[in-house]
Amino acid sequence: SKSLEETLAGVIPEKQEQLKNLRLNHGGEKLGDVKVENVIGGMRGLKAMLWHCSALDPNTGIRFHGHTIPDCQKLLPPAPGGKEIIAESMLWLLLTGEVPSPAQVRDLSRQLAENGDLPKKIADIVDAFPRDLHPMTQLSMGVAAMNFESEFAAAYEKGIKKTEYWKYAFNDSMKLIARLPALAARIYKNAYHPDTPLPPINKDLDLVGNYSNMLGYGDNEGMTEYLRLYIALHGDHEGGNVSAHTAHLVGSALSDPYLSYAAALCGLAGPLHGLANQEVLRWMLAMQNEIGSGTEVTPEQIKDYLWKTLKSGSVVPGYGHGVLRDPDPRFIALQDFCDKRPELESSPIIQLVKKTYQVAPGVLREHGKTKNPNPNVDATSGCLLYHYGLTEFKYYTVIFGVSRALGCLSQLVWDRALGLPLERPKSVTMDEIEALIKKA
Ligand code: CMX
């Protein structure tokens, strides 16, 4: 059967042709207007960038090459003995638009495991970081440092044809994805468990099976399956979100995949984006501390706590979204996971998430500010990690960072395969805006 690279090479020409046709025959057509509110409002709603791997519908949520999350749960091969989607299956779908066979997924797992060890140089750099450096800072620095052996950068320096770019971007991306679990696990060990040795990579395990094992959860089937699902679901969320947009922007300068993804990770580390799962847990624990979390907690107590948060000027973490206007299907998939796992039935923190979900949309509607009073995926993701015993919440966004590489790097390969140019929007000053309005 075909490898990932062969499958990708097979689908690229058709998409190159599609882009050529769009440029030649429809280049002058309009996709919308640019309003002043778009320019001063964080470019919200502007259809101004190309993203190939996934699309986000405001109501139905994310689709990966047209496949919804429930579709993916039906179609994508899990790990041997597991039930949840795994990173390799999602990566294959994101990159090629095709559903892999179980044998193709197994081959990819083995290929990633064979390339999963950190170069000594990188391990030494990471080991020298002060233990209190934020784990996301460490992850971004570790990823950036790995560019010392970027095939893309070396080939560019030597001089290659533009049509060849994607092959080098692909090789770098695969190597980076393969090594992320070892890098992320090393950061975890150094920060929180310096005396526990890291187990070696098991060539028979999938990427996240190995990650779970290196984090110390190899024997915890619930946690390993949760990590698989979490990492597959967080892989991509179309192009406009901060991490995806950053990888795409930095990559457009032909910075190599390591540098592009390191930049994306700095964006993921912001509290309005990837750090939200850490913020949710902090907020949930503070609520639990104040009102408890057992069956005795009433909806009124949670409502009061929500109002207290809002009146203090804070946002309710885990609720609202820049694009989505209905409950996030990723949140729903995680809730389904909670409902089918007996160990989560009596988990105080998971029960508190559920109870909060029942009242928070009503409170946020009454508050009247957010365009979407529904939960996003972060409303529950960190709480599940906490339940399974990973209580160091500063680390949570690192797991998100291992996941988001799947989408950001798939798109980066496509950016080069499609020959997309340097991204360079035109900025305007406020005086220029006023002058343009007068002229219109
Ligand atoms: N609690 C309270 N107020 C909220 C809110 C929430 N959860 N979500 C939005 N608002 C407020 C905004 O702060 C904004 O107020 P101002 O006008 O005073 O600035 C107003 O409602 C309108 O915001 P919006 O258009 O609905 O949302 P944005 O696109 O500006 O922001 C997001 C989206 C996610 C940053 C915002 O909803 C938020 O801060 N949520 C909490 C943090 C969070 O859960 N982030 C995770 C996002 C998931 C992801 O990255 O994938």
From TrEMBL:
Source taxon at top rank: Eukaryota
Gene Ontology CC terms: mitochondrial matrix
PROSITE patterns membership: CITRATE_SYNTHASE
Pfam families the UniProt entry points to: Citrate_synt (PF00285)
Keyword Zinc among record annotations: no
PANTHER family hit by this protein: CITRATE SYNTHASE, CITRATE SYNTHASE 3, MITOCHONDRIAL
BP GO terms, sorted: carbohydrate metabolic process; citrate metabolic process; tricarboxylic acid cycle
Annotated active site: H273, H321, D378
InterPro entries: Citrate_synth-like_lrg_a-sub, Citrate_synth-like_sm_a-sub, Citrate_synthase, Citrate_synthase_AS, Citrate_synthase_euk, Citrate_synthase_sf
Ribosomal protein is among the record's keywords: no
Protein location: Mitochondrion
UniProt similarity note: Belongs to the citrate synthase family.
Organism classification: Eukaryota, Fungi, Dikarya, Basidiomycota, Agaricomycotina
Species of the source: Calocera viscosa (strain TUFC12733)
Protein name: Citrate synthase
Gene Ontology molecular-function annotations: acyltransferase activity, acyl groups converted into alkyl on transfer
Keywords recorded for this protein, A-Z: Mitochondrion, Transferase, Transit peptide
